[in-house]
């Protein structure tokens, strides 16, 4: 009998583990291809809060319930962001792949109270100044350019050639980096490695390179500011130091690029594989909007977030949480919690999902709107340019990237009737 928990591997909890039962490794083929099955099994066995092990058998709690995730994120006085509280630092190896995202840094992600309000305010105001109409126009231009590169071939691999490339170019241009160049391409490559490393990648080294590149950007904008997010952050009355600006820009770029890319790709997958959308995707704005929202419920680009750390001993979902315990927020599991969808059907008609977080540490208010502009423009432009696009493989041949944190396809191969590059068509040079 297939047991998703069994295939994910049980492991006896190490000394000091917060779990009272055998914890479950949050990894493996079963998780990569069908995390919803693992979440369902964990929920059935442990309830809304489950003991799990991260890479290296580091113990944490995975919060699976919608109500519980909402509670944790709304009560910073109980579950705070400063990772220096963690009671497991003695068990974490120096080369642990998650160190770049768990080790305390002078980043807005780890700040609390008035300091968090100061730093988050800088990011929020810098993003609020982004003109959404200008962003949509720029994304349309980027999309047309990317599509032109493969439009005449009749086939493409959309994950790399389109879904990841478009938000990358949009994000770096918003932050004042050139659309092309070695620094830009290297930054995007290293962000991808640090967020979801493949077998031979070094996420810690990649993150160091990300910091170095952003440091050069900040130094350049100090000397010559422009109409961009970086310059606005540096000019803010809160007077960020260079180190603070570098760390917060990494947060902005990482959030704008990888999750938005996965949102685009996962939405295209839904549109190309679900019969409910088959008759309407060609130029169908309403169906695209429904697909974008449904993906945030069912295949949310950021499926797990590490994390929160308990300020004191407390209980959550019937579990005893000790001071210093780490909680991973299971956004994907919470979005599909059967307690909020009692009939077993997840609907896309509302936006109460947790894909952008919740509480004081959720994505700054303008960020979800900007991500929607990028993703919607990307999907609609592709469908308008290539109205007969179809999958080039069977749906069950698609595979997911091996990441506990991000939910995105390894590749999305498609085929379509070849078309001329748009510039050639507009110039009357049809072939």
From TrEMBL:
Superkingdom classification of source: Bacteria
InterPro entries given in the database record: Cyt_P450_B, Cyt_P450_sf
Q: Which Gene3D superfamilies match?
A: Cytochrome P450
From the UniProt entry, list the residue stretches annotated as the region Disordered: 1-20
Q: Which family does it belong to?
A: Belongs to the cytochrome P450 family.
- Name of the protein: Cytochrome P450
Source organism per UniProt: Streptomyces kurssanovii
